[in-house]
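Input set for joint prediction.
Command: fold jointly, output C-alpha cells.
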Amino acid sequence: MIKSPLEKARMSYQPKLPNVLKGSVKLSEGKPTESVANQAEMKTLFPHTYGLPIVEFVAGEPKSYPAVNVGVILSGGQAPGGHNVISGIFDGLKKANPASKLYGFLGGPSGLIDHKYKELTVDIIDSYRNTGGFDMIGSGRTKLEKTEQFDKGAEICKQLNIKAIVIIGGDDSNTNACILAEYYKQKNIDIQVIGCPKTIDGDLKNEMIETSFGFDTAAKVYSELIGNIQRDCNSSRKYWHFIRLMGRSASHITLECALQTQPNVAIISEEVEAKNQSLSDVVTQITDSIVERANAGYEFGSVLIPEGLLEFMPKIKMLLSEMNDLLATPEFQAIVGDEAQRNFILLKLSHENKATFESLPLFIAKQLMMDRDAHGNVQVSLIETEKMLIEMVGERLKRLKECGAYTGKFSAMAHFFGYEGRCAFPSNFDADYCYSIGYNASLLILEGKTAYMSIIRNCCKSAEEWIAGGVPVVSMMNMERRNGKDVPVIRKALVELEGKPFKFFVSKREEWAGANDTFVFQGPIQFFGPSEVCDARTKTMMLECDK
Amino acid sequence: MIKSPLEKARMSYQPKLPNVLKGSVKLSEGKPTESVANQAEMKTLFPHTYGLPIVEFVAGEPKSYPAVNVGVILSGGQAPGGHNVISGIFDGLKKANPASKLYGFLGGPSGLIDHKYKELTVDIIDSYRNTGGFDMIGSGRTKLEKTEQFDKGAEICKQLNIKAIVIIGGDDSNTNACILAEYYKQKNIDIQVIGCPKTIDGDLKNEMIETSFGFDTAAKVYSELIGNIQRDCNSSRKYWHFIRLMGRSASHITLECALQTQPNVAIISEEVEAKNQSLSDVVTQITDSIVERANAGYEFGSVLIPEGLLEFMPKIKMLLSEMNDLLATPEFQAIVGDEAQRNFILLKLSHENKATFESLPLFIAKQLMMDRDAHGNVQVSLIETEKMLIEMVGERLKRLKECGAYTGKFSAMAHFFGYEGRCAFPSNFDADYCYSIGYNASLLILEGKTAYMSIIRNCCKSAEEWIAGGVPVVSMMNMERRNGKDVPVIRKALVELEGKPFKFFVSKREEWAGANDTFVFQGPIQFFGPSEVCDARTKTMMLECDK
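C-alpha cells >
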C-alpha cells in the first residue's frame, strides 16, 4: 500500500487532548438525570441504566488500572475521524495498562454477531492515524437490536475476555448501544457498552453533544467545492449551479455550507416543512433570485439543496405514501411500459395527490415509478432533486419570459456532493475531537461506566480547555413511532428555526440572493498553516457558542 | 466581499521566481526556428513572425526601461493561476518602471474588441493574489480571428497608449495571438503580442511547454476527490464508482489522476482510438476487473473515464456524423415522440452505424437524438458517459451471471468532476509557475518581443532553477483541417502512448485492476506544510522529467 506524502505527514500528527485528560483523573458525578421525555416508560424500559448521573473528568491522584480487553465497532456510514476515535481508545488503554488489548470487530455490528474481529496492534493503529475512512476495520449497517445478537456478542466477548464494547455510530447505533448495555446489566453479563457520536449529517446533537464527529470535515470539503464552483460561475458569468448536498434527515450540512460559502439560494428542509411549502414555492424562491440577479446583470449563481428536501414536503410525503401502496398492487406490477404505468397511477391517485404528481417533471415522475427499494418503496434518495428543480425553474422562467417579467438567459449545471466528503482526511478539529472522544471512552471504561456516551464539550474553545466526560444515553432518549411501533430512540436534532445559525442565515439570505460579490471561497482544508486557517470551527458551532 | 481565512493567508504568499529573473537580465538568442510542420506554408502565412529564435533570459547589466502600457486578456475556460499571471505581469512592469500601466480587458477577447477594460491598480492586484478563478477581469470565448476585430483592438490600444497585449489562453487563443502579432507587424502597428500557455486539460504542451498552467491544481483537486471516494468504497465495500473527468480533447487529466490515485480501471481515449476499440471493448475491460475483484472478494472499486471518450471511438464518430446529417433533415424534425424518432433513425442509418446505435443504452440513444447544440449537432459533451458505462457493464454482468461466469453483486455510483477544479486556489506550483510566466512576459515585452509565448522550463526542479524565456509561437504550429479548411494551429498534445507517463500506467494497471490496497489517498492541496506535500509536481511531469 503506497502512502501519499500527505498521509505520511499526517501519521506523525499528535492529536490534541483536553488538558484534563493529559494527567491523572477522577470522575466527578452530577445529579441523576431524566430522559428528555416519556420518563415513566423509559424508566420501565431501562431499569438498570435510567437515571445515571452526568459525569465529568477532573484532575485526580495517580492510580493504577488493571489490564482490560475492549472491542470496538464502527457502525453505519463513514465519517472523517473514525480511525482517530480508535487510536484514542488504543492510546488511552495502553497508557493506563500496556497489557490491555483492543479488538476491532470487522464490517460493523455484524462483526460482533458473526465473531469476525482482529486485534488492533500498534502497527495497525499507527498506519491509520489521522486518516479518513473506516477501512481499518470496516463498517456496516446491521442493526444490533435482537437478544440473540446480544447473546452472540456476549459469547465472543467471553472468549476474548472483552470487558467493554465501544460503538461508534449515529443516533440509531447509540440507541442500540444503550439497549445492549441495559440487556447485559439485566443478564448480569459483565460487559460495559460505551457510545461515541458520529455522523456527518449533524443530526446527533443536543445540549450535551455539541457536534458529531465528521460534520466539521465533510462540511468543509463540500464548502471547498461549492466555493470553487462559485468562483467559476463568477468568472464565466453564464451558469447557475444547482448543488445537492448529503443530509437526508436534516439540513445541517446545507445550512453550514451556506454559512461558509454564501450562495444565492439555500433551501433548508426544516423551514420548508414548518411553512408547509410546496415544490412550487421552492421554485418561486429560486426563480425570484434568478430574476433579481438577471435584472442586475448577473445571469449566474448558486443554489444549495439538501438531499432530503422532498421528504420534508407534506404534499410530496402524502403522494409518496399513496404511491407506495399503488406500486405494491399486483395490478400495477402487471402493467408494461412507462405510459401505461403513468396512466394507471393517474387514474388511481386521489385528487390532491394526482395534482402533485402532475406537477412533477416527467423524468421525475418516471423515477418515482421505476426506482424502488427492496420493499417496493419509492427510493427518494435516488431522486435527482437538483435536476428536477432546474427543469421546473426553467419552465417557470419560460412563462415569465412570455409575459415579459424576465428577459434573461438561464443555463444551469447540476451537482451532487456526498461520497466526496465522508472519507476525507479529518480536519485538525475532527482529528483532535475524535482522538479525545476515543481517549475519553477508554477512561469511562476504566472507571467502570456503561450505557454512557463519550462526550467532549466546550468545543469552540481550544482543545486544552475542552471538558471531557460521559452522558447517560438514556437521558437523551424519548419514545418515537417507527414502522408502526413506539420505540425508545435518541431524539434526532433537526435544524432549529429559532437557533442562532438559522437565524443568522435568514438575516443574510436576502442580500445573498441578489447582490454580487457575496460568495466566499474557503478553499481546501489545511493542516499545517496559521491557526485561523487550520483550526477554524464550523460557523454553526461558533454561532451556537456565542451565547 | 468577505475573504475566507485561507484567502487572507494566501494574499501574503510571495510566489517564487526563477533566480535569473530576480536580478537584471539580458536576452540570449538561439538559432532561427522552423515550425513543426508545413514550413513553406507557415513561412508564407507568417512572413514577419516566422523563423524567430528561441530566447532565454540570462543575468545582465542593470538597465532602465521606459514606461510601457500593457493590456491583458483571459481567454477561454478558467484555470487555476490566471490571477497570478496577471500579478506577475504587473509586478514585472512596475519594477522596471513604476510609471508603466496594466489594463485588463474585460470578459475575454471581446473586451479588446468592444473596448471594455479597466486599469489594474495595485489594490485590485493585491486583492486577487494567489486566488483561483478569472473573476478579476473575467474571461470569454470570443475568437480573435478577423481583421476588423484586430483593427478595433488597435484602436483602443492607441487610445490607451498600449504597446503590448498579453493573451492568456489555450492552443486556439495562442494561435490567434500569433495571427494578431503577425497582422500588427504587417500593418506596421506598434503593438506587441505575447501568449501564455493555459489549460487544465494539459493539451497545450510540447518540447518547450513543459506544462500548461492550471493542470497541476485541477488534477490535484480531482485526485483529492477520487481518493476520498476510493477510501469510501474501501470502507463500505459495496459500490463501484464510475468517475468522469474533464478533458474532452485529450486524456491527460485522467492519466494524471490515475497515476495519483491508482484506480482499478482508467480509460485513456488516445489508446482507445489507437487500438480502434469499441464501447463493447471498453465494457469488457471494466467488466474483467469487476469479475476478477469479485472473485477475490472485493465487490467495489473505481473507474476513471475521460470526458471525451466517445469522440475517440471511430465507430461512434461515424455514427455521430451520420446522425448529425439525419437530425438536420426536415423529415426528422417533423417527427413527434421518442419512439417514432428512434424508428426513423434506425430505418435511415447505414448498416454499420445502425448496429452501433442499437448497442447503446436507450437513454443514451435518446440523449443523442434530443440534446443538440445551436448548429443542430449532437452535444457529445453532455452525454453522461459514466452512466452509460454503468448501464452497459451492468447488462454485461447480468449475462455473465446467467452463464455462471460471475456470481457477484454490482452496485455503482456515477460522478462527474469538472467545474470543481477549474477555479480552485492555485497550488504552490501553479502559483509560482503562473507568477513567473507573467513576470517573464513583462520582460519579453520590455525587450521588444512579439509573437512569442512566455515560457518557463526545468519545472521539475525547484523554482530557483527554472529557465525563463520565450518561444516563437509559429515554431509550434502546423496546418490542420478545421471546419473543412486548412488553417495554421498550434499542434494539440494528446497523451503519447510511447511516453513515459502512459507506459508507467500500463506497467501498473493490471495490478491495480485486481489487487486490493492499491488505492492512494492524496488528500486536499496543502499550501503551508512540508515541501514534499506542498510543492509536489504532477506525476506526469516527474515521469517526463526522469530522462
